[in-house]
Fold this protein.
Amino acid sequence: MYLEKRRCFRDPISEIFKAAELLDRAANAFLAGDLILAEELIHLADMQEIRAWTESIWGKSSPYVHVRQISDEKPYLPKNQRSTNRMPTKQQQKLLLQRDGFHCRFCGIPVIRKEVRAFLHKQFPEALPWGAKNIEQHAAFQAMWVQYDHIIPHARGGNNDLDNLVITCAPCNYGRMNYLLEEVGLEDPRQHPPQKSEWDGLERVLQHGWIFA
Ligand SMILES: [Zn+2]
């Protein structure tokens, strides 16, 4: 049987790239001390179209995530048989970002680390809401949230070797849950080189943020 494989569950929508551009300008405004403009641009990037895109991928019974049985299925391991560390160390995270850049290895959208988001949330709590519920979170920062995704999921025996980890966005990570690539019909993103670009995940705001802290 021919099994079709895709690069990602759903192609990104143009609003995500518009939001990234707005956030890039917001970072520049912030660093130039124009906090009013920075706040306005961050607010404009909080687009409901992006929230709908995210929900369509990681939501319950997503029309974009199709699960199928494969023959060489890896069993789900009992918790005590999984490798002990689920999260890569800070040093591994840094190496992964250096290797992959700030783009999702599946869908290619620009991504932002939670540390950068938390810093900006502190500066702009109203323009960048981040509550406990999905609906209370800024739609662009939510979709663009950096994930250190296991190719063979931790629950299926995957470890934290850098070879088994890729940088992804939140919808691509949570949409796949604990399924193997083959089970959801995704291509192995490691077949394609990481996308290089000028996008720095807004990391530059952390270097100068103390001025306004
Ligand atoms: Zn993605």
